Amino acid sequence: MNLYYLGPEGTHSHDAAVQLRDGMLRDAELIPCTTIPMVIERTCSVQAEKALCCVPIENSIQGSVAQTWDTLMKSACGTGDASQGGSISILAAFTVPIHHYAIHRQGISYEDVRRVYSHPQALAQCQEHIASLFPEAVPVALTSTAEAVRQIAEGDGAGSQADAAVAIAGRNAAARYGLECSSSPIEDQAGNETRFALVGTRASQVERVGTPLGWRLDERMVSLCLHGVAHSPGGLVGALLPFAQAGLNLGRVESRPVGDRLGNYVFYLDVSFAASAAGAELNARLAPVTHQLAASGIEVVELGNYPVYQVEL
């Protein structure tokens, strides 16, 4: 079984994939990819039962990871490169604490830093600390936190006094590349967490195991995408009202552009259920709502029906 993730080794996604393998997928081989869409596309491109992936879906500071949700939606709807191997679905999700550190070569003075490398999510999660610690620096977005550390390790930012650089990444990445890191985390909000998803084709055979040691089952979730919500007064209210009438709790409602023209949106919804709820119960409670929406011309695409865990290690 292949388990794809956003690499290289040392990213937060790599750390999450290791936790996922150790908790649920003992025989999985971890395979890094350079972008989130590539992670999902690779999962779709191989034999269905032999590939899964671990991708970030939401952060407590910056919110949803739009690139992940948009790629999942395109796969589920049969559009884009990620749909070529078959529709995929979220099979499970787990939330882990995330800590970012300033990582650099020995002897660097923060006053001399002129560039701060990291993934866009990490840069956004640390923007206040970056402005305070490195007031003369320009943020530089790269494909991953570990790629930022790799560039520092290979010589960028070794520099001259007035032209130093740092990377923002997890402490494991600093240890992996033999670099120094700040003594404390620099994310802007305490309690920073990211939720990762285990994703695979609907034909994937994931062994059903109990809750992994050090994990807590928090809730069950059904993630949906609504297409065709009327662009008119009350259009969104009309699409959401059936959920309220059915007594369903929406933990997330988010719009995203379709991309063909301004004003054309899809809406992502997370419907939250108690941890004790069974999959059949979720489907039974949602069915009348989705039928009502379909009757009004709204297409409802399910992106996953899955358990959500909190990693307590």
Account of the protein in words:
This protein is α/β, with parallel strands linked by helices and 313 residues long. The protein has 3 domains: 1-97 and 192-212, Periplasmic binding protein-like II (D-Maltodextrin-Binding Protein, domain 2, 3-Layer(aba) Sandwich); 101-181, Periplasmic binding protein-like II (D-Maltodextrin-Binding Protein, domain 2, 3-Layer(aba) Sandwich), CATH 3.40.190.10; 218-306, 2-Layer Sandwich (Alpha-Beta Plaits). The protein contains 9 helices and 15 strands. It has helices at 12-24, 36-45, 66-76, 120-125, 127-133, 145-153, 171-177, 235-245, 279-295; strands spanning 2-6, 29-33, 51-59, 63-64, 88-97, 101-104, 113-118, 138-141, 164-169, 180-181, 193-201, 215-227, 249-257, 265-274, 299-311. Strands 1, 2, 3, 4, 5, 11, 12, 13, 14 and 15 form a 10-stranded mixed β-sheet that branches. A hairpin with a 7-residue loop joins strand 13 and strand 14. Helix 2 runs parallel beside helix 3 (66-76). The radius of gyration is 21 Å and the shape is globular. The two termini are 25 Å apart. Residues 2-201 form the Prephenate dehydratase domain. It comes from Alicyclobacillus fastidiosus. Its EC number is 4.2.1.51. Residues 224-303 form the ACT domain. Pfam families: PDT.
